[in-house]
Amino acid sequence: MQTSYPKEKLKILLLESIHPAAIDLLNKAGYTDIESIKGSISEKELLEKIGKVHILGIRSKTQITEAVLKKAEKLIAIGAFCIGTNQIKMNLARQQGVAVFNSPFSNTRSVAELVLGLSIMLMRRVFEKSEGAHQGLWLKESKDCFEVRGKTLGIVGYGHIGSQVSVMAEALGMKVMFYDVTSKLSLGNAKSSNSLDDLLKKSDIITLHVPGTEGTKKLTNATRLKKMKPGAVLLNLSRGDVMDVWAVKEAIEKRQLGGLAVDVFPEEPKDNKDVFASPLQGLKNVILTPHIGGSTVEAQEAIGLDVADKLISFIENGSSSGSLTIPEISLPVMNNAHRILHIHSNVPGVLSQINGVLSKMKVNIIGQYLKTNEEIGYVVLDIDKKSGPKVMTELKKVKNTIRTRSLY
Question: What is the pTM of this model?
C-alpha cells in the first residue's frame, strides 16, 4: 500500500536480536531503513539514536525510560517482541500517543512444554543425579523419585499458558486443579479450586502463571508455603516478584518443599556478560534457568511475525488491534479516500471540534471510527480524496490533540 510518508524514509530500529522473520516481513512490506542490533544498548546509546526513529522494536531487556520517550519526537510505535511490557514507561507512551504492541500468546506452547519438562525432572530428581554422574557418582536409587502420572498439578493462573499446561498434563495422566481470580471455563477434566489455599493443600506440583501486579507480588510467601503438601514441588515461570525468594529458600532447606524450578527472577542480568546471583543457587533439587520459557526458535519466529504484522497494520492502515496504549480499532482498507488518524486526550468536546473543522471546510466524511479508553481518544477519518492538505493543518490545531497523522 502506498502511504503518504515514503516507506523507505521510515527509520526502524530493532534491538536484542529480534528474529529475522520480522525483518523479512518488514522488507517485503517495503521498509528498507532497518537497523538491527544483536543485544540491548545502554540508555545513553538509545538516547543518541531515538530522535530519528519512527518504529522501535525491543525485547525484555531494553528499558524505555521517560528520558527516552521524551526524546523520541518521531516515534510512532513500539513493538515489544515478547510478552511483558514492564520495561516500557507505558503511561508516558500512552500520553504521547505512541502505540505499543506485544505478543502475549506466541510463546505459549514453548512455556507450557518447559513447565512439564521441569515437573518431570523435579519429581525424578534428574539434575541431582546428572550432576552426580558428571562427578563420577552413581546415584541409582528410587528414593524420593516419583512419576507424574496420578499426581495432582495445581495451576495458579488459568490463562493461555496455564490452560495449555492443563491439557498437556492430563495427557500425561495427571489430575489438574486450577485457581484464577476470574471465572474460567475448565478444559478437559481440570477442576477449578474454590481458593488458592485449597489448591496449595491438595497439589503435588504447583506452577505459577500470573501477571506481575501489586496483587501478585510475593504471592508465594512463607505463610502460603506452609500450606503446601510436605514435599510438593514449585515452579515459577511467570514473573520474578510473585515469589518470596528468601521464604522459598528456607522452605527448600527445611525440606518443606521437595523441589523448585525458577525461570524468572526479581533481578536479572542485562545481558549474557553480566554475573547472575540468586539466594536459590546451590540448593538441592533446584533448577534455575535464565528466563528461557519462550526462548525457542519456533516461539521467537512466531513472536517476530506477530509483532511485525501489528506494526505494519498500524503504520499503513491505522488498525490498532493489539495495542496496549492506543484504543483498539480494526479498520477496513479504503481505496478512494484520504485516511487521517487523530489521537487526543479523552476529554469532552474533542470529537465535536473535529467535526466542526470538517464541516467548516465542507469536507465530505466517507467513514469515521472512534474508540476511547480512560485517557486517550482515537479517531480515524476517511475523507473525500478532493480534500487538500489544509485539513491536516486545521486538525492539528484542535485543542487536546496529541498526534495527527495522514496515511494516504
Answer: 0.84
